[in-house]
Amino acid sequence: MKRFMKVYEFLEDIISGGLLSVGVTLIFYGVIMRYVFNDARSWVDEISQYLIIWGTLIGTSVALRNDHHIKVDMLFNVLPKKVQHIVTLFAHCVGITFSLFIGYYGYKLVAFTHNTGQVSTDVGIPLYLVYSILPLTGALLTFRFAIKLYETFRVTSEIGHVAERM
User: Fold this and answer.
1) Cα–Cα distance between 156 and 88 in angstroms, integer?
2) What is the per-residue pLDDT across 22-42, written as a single tens digit (0 to 9) for each?
3) Which residue, among 53, 130, 63, has the nearest Cα to 95 in the 3D structure?
4) Half-sphere exposure of 93 (CA within 13 A, CB side)
5) What's the rounded Cα separation, in Å, for the pair 11 and 34?
6) Directed axis angle between helix 2-35 and helix 42-65, to 10°?
7) Which backbone phi and psi does 79 adopt, to 5 degrees?
8) Using CA atoms, how far apart are residues 108 and 158, in angstroms rounded to an integer?
9) What are the backbone dihedrals phi and psi of residue 119, each rounded to the nearest 5 degrees, phi first?
10) Around Cβ 38, how many Cβ atoms within 10 Å?
11) Strand partners for 119
C-alpha cells in the first residue's frame, strides 16, 4: 500500500505541476507571438486556461495532502484536544460531502455537454473533455479526505488507548 501511495502522490505532483508549467509556458508563448511577432494565436489562450484550471484543481488534492489549504485556526488552537479531534472529524466529513457533491454534479455536467455535443469556441474541443476535471477533482478530494478522516480516527483511537493505560 505504501508503494501505491508513493506512486500515486508522485503522479499527482507531476501531473499538477506539469499542467501548470505547460499552461504558463503557453501564456509566455502567446505573449511573445502577440507582442514581438504581431501574430496573435487564439488557441493559446483557450488551451492555457484549460491547462491551468486542470493543474490547479488537481493541485487541490496535493494541497490537502500536505495541509497547505486555507484554514482558520485561531479558535481551533484554543480548544481542548478532544474537541479539536471532534471538529477535525466533522470538517473531514463536510469535506467528503463537498467532494462528492463536486463529483456528482460534475458528472452530470459532463454527461449534459456530451449529450448536447457542445465544443469550445476557438479550438473546438468537446466541452465534456474540458469539464471532466470536475468529477475527477471530486474523486481525488474524496479519496484524500477519506485518508485524512481515517488518519484522524486512528490518532483519536491511539489517544484513547494511551489514556486508558494511565
Assistant:
1) 10
2) 999 999 999 988 888 888 788
3) 63
4) 7
5) 34
6) 150
7) -75, 155
8) 41
9) -130, 160
10) 7
11) 126
Please say whether the beta carbons of 110 and 134 come within 8 A. Answer: yes
Q: What are the start-end ranges of the H helices in the chain?
A: 2-35, 42-65, 81-116, 127-131, 133-165
pTM of the model: 0.82
Read off the amino acid at residue 161: H
- Indicate the SS3 state at residue 119: strand
Contacts by 144-148, CB closer than 8 A, 24 or more apart: 144/61, 144/64, 144/65, 145/64, 145/92, 145/95, 145/96, 145/99, 146/96, 147/65, 148/64, 148/92, 148/95
CA-wise closest residue to 156 among 61, 67, 90, 76: 90
Residue 89 class from Cβ within 10 Å (0-12 exposed, 13-18 middle, 19+ buried)? middle
Which residue shows C-alpha cell 466541452? 127
Locus of grid cell 504558463: 24
**Predicted confidence band of residue 84 (pLDDT cuts 50, 70, 90):** confident
